[in-house]
Amino acid sequence: MQAEDVAHYLREHPQFFEDYAGMLAEVNIPHPHGGRTISLSERQMLTLREKNKLLEHKLRELLDIAHDNDALQNKLHGFMLTLFDADNLLGLQETVTGNLREMFSIPHVVLHVWKGLPPSAEVLAFTDAQLSPVCVHQAIHETGTWFGEAGPRLGSFAYIPLRDGQASTGLLILASEDGQRFYPEMGTVFLQRIAETVSAALRRYL
Q1: What whole-number distance in Å separates Cα of residue 154 and Cα of residue 135?
Q2: pLDDT tens across 67-95, in order?
Q3: pTM value surpassing 0.70
Q4: Alpha-carbon span 158 to 176, nearest angstrom
Q5: Range with lowest mean pLDDT among 13-22, 50-59, 132-141, 159-168
Q6: Cβ count within 10 A of residue 15
Q7: How far out from the chain centre does Cα 46 lie?
Q8: pLDDT attached to residue 198
Q9: pLDDT on residue 148
Q10: What is the CA radius of gyration of the chain?
Q11: Any idea where the domains of the chain sit in the sequence?
């Protein structure tokens, strides 16, 4: 008889455990971490403790994520409020880039507005084609040069198209030397919130 046959029999005949309850109490099995044998009831308790530890770990992870999201929401709200302080286009650009660096600890930020300074055809086509923020590990077209001397050292970028309706009005780029700060698989919900907020703030100057 194979072990699978025994397991199948026990699943199909649960009454066995009631009929031979005394025998089950006498059965000893190896301890999962070695060294001695334990009863079935002890093994079951160990299994329950291990499952509880796993559930506690997952709960802590969820709480940490919730805490981080709350902190990010508060920062985003504070960032939005600062945009009301700007009274011209240059002031708005400085407010956006400066506060993104300080409030979100983003080392490199560039805000390129098309008004008065249109981009290359390639950058314009790229921006118009994006329906949401895009995170990559290499600069798109010539945008790496927008960061000056820091450009060659940068290892990750978040491209945030700015729009007025369907037309793009500019491009906000966040960048870091850390290649994992922005990556293609990361969520972009908060980046999209920034895109919408900055786009709305720009409209009065376009």
Answers
A1: 13
A2: 666 677 778 888 888 888 788 999 999 99
A3: no
A4: 9
A5: 13-22
A6: 8
A7: 35
A8: 95
A9: 93
A10: 29
A11: 16-85, 87-205
d(CA 81, CA 8): 65
As given in the structure block, the two tokens for residue 39 are: 């009863």
Look up residue 67 and give its amino acid.
H
Enumerate residues 6+ apart whose C-beta is below 8 A from 5. none
| Average pLDDT score over residue span 154-181 | 95
Domain 87-205, architecture per CATH: 2-Layer Sandwich (3.30)
Task: State CA 55 to chain mean position distance.
Answer: 22
CB 158 within 8 A of CB 191: yes
Query: What is the 3-state secondary structure of the chain?
Result: CCHHHHHHHHHHCCHHHHHCHHHHHHCEEECCCCCCEEEHHHHHHHHHHHHHHHHHHHHHHHHHHHHHHHHHHHHHHHHHHHHHHCCCHHHHHHHHHHHHHHHHCCCEEEEEECCCCCCCHHHHHHHHHCCCCEEECCCCHHHHHHHHHHHHHCCEEEEEEEEECCEEEEEEEEEECCCCCCCCCCCCHHHHHHHHHHHHHHHHHC
Q: Which of 170, 131, 140 is nearest to 158 (CA)?
A: 140
